[in-house]
Amino acid sequence: MEEEFLLLDAGSAEPAALAGKVLSVAGEHPWRRSGGGLHRELFQTQVEAATGTCTTLAELRGHLHGARVLLAAVARDEGLELVSAGTPMLAGAAPALSEGERFRRIGEMYGGVIADYQSCGCHVHVGVADRETAVAVMNHLRPWLPTLLALSANSPFDRGRDTGYASWRMVQQSRFPGSGVPPWFDSAAAYERQVDRLVDCGVLVDEAMSFWLARPGVGLPTVEVRAADAAGTTDEAVLQAALTRGLVSTAEAALRAGREAPRAHEQVCAAAVWNAARHGLDGPGVDVFEERAVPAVQLLDRLVGHVSGALADSGDLAEVEDLVARVRRMGTGAERQRRAAMRGPRAVLEMLSSQTVWEQPPRTYRESA
């Protein structure tokens, strides 16, 4: 998994461009020998932690939590707070791009669209046999990607205002070419031709870049799912991982049985992404199979049911059901941010920084059970 975080000034709650200092002091990822790493992101106000390869949810939780605790401790020593949120609540000064030729090219290509894109996501890689399998699995994932977004919604604010959206990050991402649910591809070669076409059209920097919510891993034998906002808590990141692995395993079983992925209509998928970004779990979603609006929580229940066999096989079903129930009780990250905002921006910062290194948000910001 890859988690992107914001660095906020502890006094002003505005983004602080000190990623280089934080990463330098933090040193190596606690599980670097398993492949974990700490990295720069697009802006100097962001850092990324990538776990090593994990086979159990317990192992993954350890990797995620260890990196969060390390980065948060270093940040606090620098007068900062590490927060896991899809967008910052306050804008602050115009952020500076991180150093590097690729970041420079991205800045030049996208201009003003990238200028305020301090957006953070939670990306899940699941190992598969080969790239052909990755593309076939990706087709099966298409109908479920909006529900993963709705579950993760954690970015309701922009420049100090409530946007009315649960995931403003996804609204920002939709401004880039090729965003949202990926098209249906009949082969890995077809996928690669489409990416090459977008590069040739001058709208992607290179073949390793795309904005689709799922893609074959770049340089890795994986399916990479990029639907989720940055997860407020470690448990919510684990939940995204468990559901994603369940979706991949379920898709692989369907492929072995000779079942082709449904060809959900691209505009209906786009409507589903918009609804997920607008409402999260607190409102309507779009059933892409029936092409109509239904309660988003109903879609979440269907998703869990769809992958329940795979979750049972991996021993994760009970934990996933518990984590889903917890999110429904506490509210999504966006809902918790809004509750905290009733006390002002400082309360949002305190809640976000606390829950980033805790398994759950402080009780003050949870619905009473």
UniProtKB/TrEMBL annotation:
It comes from Nonomuraea angiospora. It catalyses: L-cysteine + L-glutamate + ATP = gamma-L-glutamyl-L-cysteine + ADP + phosphate + H(+). It holds the Pfam family GCS2. The keyword rRNA-binding does not apply. Belongs to the glutamate--cysteine ligase type 2 family. YbdK subfamily. Its EC number is 6.3.2.2. InterPro entries: GCL_type2/YbdK_subfam, GCS2, Gln_synth/guanido_kin_cat_dom, YbdK. It comes from the Bacteria. Keywords: ATP-binding, Ligase, Nucleotide-binding. This is Putative glutamate--cysteine ligase 2. It is an enzyme of class 6 (ligase). One of its GO terms (molecular function) is ligase activity. ATP-dependent carboxylate-amine ligase which exhibits weak glutamate--cysteine ligase activity. NCBIfam families: gshA_cyan_rel, PRK13517.1-1. The keyword Methyltransferase does not apply.
